Amino acid sequence: MLLIPLIGVFLISTKMYRNKTITDVNAVSDWSNRQLKSIALQTSVCTLFVSLIIFALYDFSNNQFQFVQEYHEISYFNFYLGVDGLSIYFVLLTTIIMPVSLLSNWTSISHNLKTYLITILLLETLLLSVFLVLDILLFYIFFESILPPFFILIGSFGSSNRVRASFYLFLYTLLGSLFLLLSIVTMSSITGTTDFDALYKTNFNYYTQLFLFIGICIAFAVKTPIIFLNTWLLKAHVESPLSGSIILAGIVLKLSLYGILRLILPLLPKAYINCTFLIYLIGVITIVYASISTLRTIDVKELIAYSSVSHAAVYLMGVFSNTIQGIEGGIALGLAHGFVSSGLFICAGGVLYDRSSTRLITYYRGIAQMMPLFSVIFFILCLGNCGVPLTLNFVGEFLSLYGAFERLPILGALASSSIIFSAAYTIYMFNRIAFAGSYSKFFIVNISDLNKREFYILLTLVLFTVALGIYPAPVLDGLHYSVTTLIYSVRSV
User: Fold this and answer.
1) Where in the numbering of this chain does the NADH:quinone oxidoreductase/Mrp antiporter transmembrane domain appear (predicted)?
2) Higher-confidence residue: 342 or 26?
3) Measured by CB atoms within 10 angstroms of the end CB, which terminus of the chain is less buried, N or C?
4) Could you give the dihedral angle defined by the CA atoms of residues 361, 364, 365 and 368, in that order, rounded to the nearest 10 degrees?
5) Are 462 and 377 within 8 A, CB to CB?
């Protein structure tokens, strides 16, 4: 599965040198662009099929790592690959979102196309590696290795202020992850190993756990991101190309969630249980601040990015609840947010912005008169963002808040305000875009409704959100064994 995107990178890097016999320069360019895009798409779809086969063959009655590949020849660390009941869902999310991100920018990027496609496929391999490696040092290496491709993606293909945004992303997350590296080096020096299985059998003393917890938390707080550490996220989302925003919201923001499940909950139980109040307090402040900031935002892409911060705080509180419902809900909300935020970014950046070249909500009015199909799908995605019943967001948000309320009732009740806030800013945004009077006077010509490509991309994301919202058992049942071991390992301390 990791090699398929790399094979795609090799094919793309060698493809453009063929068929030079065509004399018309434009014909050569169009032909080669179509060929390159089809190779990239076929590669990502093949990776998706392989991940679905792994999911079908996975034994959910066992909480051990499965499909393990071991390579001992590498010095300093062992190259282990494998999946368990937690990582299999993040792998599936990654392989589903990647073809969507490629299709979202299918027509809007034509310059340096080869660089763009290679960057996307490299990102897919690196992101999958984060979820598949079973060595803590390799986890850090792949966790950080996504930064150079993102730096290129935003810096080369973003909006007018793209260079500043790419530096914000790179420096913020690199500095935050320095503390993660120090924590990993400390664990390795104490135990003499970087293997996940061996580390799970160790028991650090309380003060060691506390210092390790602080270091790892700083890194994941930047990546989540929480309040006062989210400046990079807004700039990166607003200036990024559409595929970059989709990957950033759908997958990269889930790396911190996965890291918490892998590093903090099993390895540092005493520290995180004693720091739960502080984490919940930060989570509540993040929810309230991000939601109020979202209400006053007039840039549609920035509004969706701000809402990601609020939802991230909810699933952060869920996974720190030390309850089965909370942890399962946090993971379910993370997966749901990946589908819904990707859909909303396609609606905002791929449909509205591509047709009108503006992101300001002020200019959109009465879109439902011109684009009824778009308005219906946009409305369903907005309902998902609010956490309305019959969507996976509702399942995840309800279970996360249930777990938070069970752990600390007062802060859990305050965190429940996210339901009201998310409904307020999302429906307010939809109302201003779809209705709010007659069709906007700022547009001289009518803008067209969804084409087939856009419709099928958005329909896929809507179907995942609604189908898993009506019947969430494939996600929750599969998580059950792995989540139960996290709870027991904490309570046995």
Assistant:
1) 135-419
2) 342
3) C
4) -110
5) yes
Of 140, 112, 124, 55, residue with least CA distance to 89: 55
Q: Which two tokens stand for residue 258?
A: 């996965």
Cβ-Cβ contacts under 8 Å for 36 (sequence gap 6 or more): 12, 15, 16, 113, 114, 117
Q: For residue 436, what are the contacts with CB-CB under 8 A and spacing of at least 6?
A: 365, 366
- Does residue 451 sit in helix, strand or coil? coil
Q: What is the mean pLDDT of residues 61-75?
A: 79
Written as six digits, the tokens of 194 are 């970087």
pLDDT average, residue stretch 348-363: 85
Q: How far apart are CA 139 and CA 255, in angstroms?
A: 10
φ, ψ of residue 360 in degrees (nearest 5): -80, 130
pLDDT at residue 353 tops 90:
no
What is the pLDDT averaged over residues 5-15?
Answer: 89
SS3 86: coil
Element holding 263 (H helix, E strand):
none
Map tokens 């996600």 to a residue.
475
What dihedral angle (degrees, nearest 10) is formed by the CA atoms of 368, 374, 376, 381? Answer: -120
Chain segment 143-181, per-residue pLDDT in tens: 999 999 999 999 888 888 888 888 888 888 888 889 999
With a CB cutoff of 8 Å and minimum separation 6, the contacts of 297 are 303, 306, 425
Give the number of C-alpha atoms closer than 13 A to the C-alpha of residue 437, restricted to the C-beta side: 7
Question: ∠158-244-126 over CA atoms, to 5°?
Answer: 130
Could you tell me the two tokens for 351?
A: 């449909």
Cα–Cα distance between 137 and 19 in angstroms, integer? 44
Name 28's Cβ contacts closer than 8 Å, sequence gap at least 6.
19, 20, 22
Identify the pLDDT of residue 491: 47
195-202: long-range pairs with CB below 8 Å, 24+? 195/78, 195/80, 195/134, 195/135, 195/136, 196/65, 196/80, 196/134, 196/135, 196/136, 196/262, 197/65, 197/134, 199/136, 199/267, 200/266, 200/267, 200/489, 202/267
Q: Is the pLDDT of residue 396 over 50?
A: yes
This prediction's pTM: 0.92
Q: How confident is the model at residue 88 (pLDDT cuts 50, 70, 90)?
A: very high
Instruction: Measure the CA–CA gap between 95 and 131, rounded to whole angstroms.
Output: 12
User: Would you tell me how many other CB atoms lie within 10 Å of the CB of residue 463?
Assistant: 11
| Alpha helices for 77-112 (secondary structure H) | 87-104
Each residue of 103-129: pLDDT tens digit? 988 887 778 888 999 999 999 999 999
Helices 231-239 and 162-191, axial angle in degrees (round to 10): 130
